[in-house]
Amino acid sequence: MSFGYNGKILHVNLSTHEITTEEPGEQWYRTYMGGSAFASYYLLKMVKPGIDPLSPDNVLVLATSVICGAPISGYNRFTAAAKSPLTDYFGEAEAGGYFGPELKFAGYDAIVIRGKAEKPVYLSIMHGQASLQDASSFWGLDNFQTLEKIREETGERKVRVASIGPAGEKLIRFANISNDMEHFNGRTGMGCVMGSKNLKAVAVRGTEKPEFADPETVKSINKWHRERIKNHPPNQGLSTGGTPVLVKGLNASGILPTRNFKYGTFEGHEKLEWENYKQEIFYKPSTCYMCSVACKRAVKSDDPQFPLDPRFGGPEYETLGSMGSNLCNSNIKSIGRANQICNLVGMDTISAGNMVAFVMECYESGILTAADIGRDLPWGDAEGICWLVEAIGNRQGLGDVLAEGMIRAAQTIGKGSEKFAFHIKGNDLPLHDGRGKTGMAMGYALSSTGADHVECPHDGVFQGEGYQALSALGITESIRPLDTDEDKVRFFHLGQLAWGINNLLSICNFCSVPIHAMTFHNLVESVRAITGWDTSLFDIIRATERSLVMSRLFNVREGIGPEEDRVISRWHDPLPDGPLAGQKIDEQEFRKALDLYYEVCGWDQKGRPGHAKLVDLDIDWVQEVM
Amino acid sequence: MELTVTPYSSLRKSDQSSFVVHLQPASSVADLLTELNIAQHEVEMVAINGLLSQFNSELQDQDRVVLIPFVSGG
To answer: Which residues from chain B sit within 8 angstroms of residue A433, using beta carbons?
Structure first.
């Protein structure tokens, strides 16, 4: 008898329409636990190195965890993973909402999808029954229309739908997966992989909740957690204003990306801050399954130029950065509008904003003219931003070039545009400046998914006595956000392992350890109570390391070298403005820190985990697929 | 009671890196923030004498309070 999970993985071959169920056994679940590790396990086993990510040979994994769906705030996410069409390396993105728990209540812990359907289909999993349904009549519909259609067709009002919009169908390389129009597996083009497979959506509905080994303890941890969330500083902030509350502190600290990651402060910052957001566009808060933080924001505006519909999602911090400060755009309604265009067509707002920033800098420097773009596009042109985002979503004009992602777009445009095309391993940048938080810069450099802001906790929080949040890992003193020394490498390594717990166990970073209301102790207690396993923080962190090493080896197999572990050239230049003016990441020092990190991890000088590490983590089977 | 307060970055409203604040006995962190005119949603971490604390944590005379603004991921 398993507790907390179903013990079932659904395998779907879209080419043959074959649907099978795998029951891997408790030892497998104990070893991999969920999310990122389930994903890297199947991708290593099933994806041959060197394949085209848009071919039927690619495999898409949608994975929950052994604890996903338990009634504790934040235990509700799921992982989408495949070989990324944006980076050609390991692709992974998480989303919250209700889809993950519903998949478990429908009878499965994960779905592994391969092949390509001859014509558009959607995968339906209703109360344990999986089938492929014709989606020809949905093809071309946006995410909202798709959601409505599937609700109508299934007759299940409470069906949860993970879908792609036209962006995924048109193989925009940063197309995302939307669930219920409000939650997105945003990064690395997982929606593009769905589109390449003619898979329009996955619809799930179920009511069979897995039993817990110790339901009373689960209940009491939930009660404690909800009470703590009310008075826990970062959770209180997120409950009040969602992630838009970040803008003020980042700008004041001089690390709010501005003008394509050149500057760290934005003169129009007040327009992007929560106080103005609330006044101009806020409609109501919303939340994910069983979560009392409720950090999501619905927005509304009747402005004819930038209309906002509360059903289509509100901009989060990353979008305020990507469509706001980084484009010198202080018009919050236009940011909301650009966000809703992305949500409806189904593309990542971070990537779409990065592409606009790239074009704006190319326009400023004369590499692209108004004739090349289709209009003038100076910094801060709110209307122009929405226009270009729409053009990308429709693959119209220059938008067709930009839809190919940063590396390919810069190659096509040429004329020296590469120097403004910022990406790491092909993935464009989330909206944080590594010059002001070097541990996070290491996360950008080392993540298997390329530039990734949720690879590790951001250093700034651990100034002063903030390090106490990591004391359970043996961190006993504060760190300096700007250093790249030995202490920083140790801190980053431990922080990365701790933060990795969240993607492993499908927990939201905003409810979990180390910064938010959960404690390491009660997190472990909850896993013990849900699963009945005699597990520990040590055991869980080992599973996290397993996941990191497996995704790294996926990339090693694709030919990655240490030169791809890097940050953008612009961060080796001093910040020109703000309180951190003059601050830069020294290229040689940073390289030394990365080399030391490899050694700390027990990897070789080229950043490759070897035989001993695989033996240590009990995954030496990986050698057979390398 | 007398407290020493150290706010970081955007929470620092004056040139002084640390300063003394006088509050009524049995005040909480939330009361201190009201006194300093800092909104709770701007604060990511609070430490009292080196221990992470909550908004309802009660303050004692001579406590050292560190306030760190929202600067992490999103």
So the answer is: none
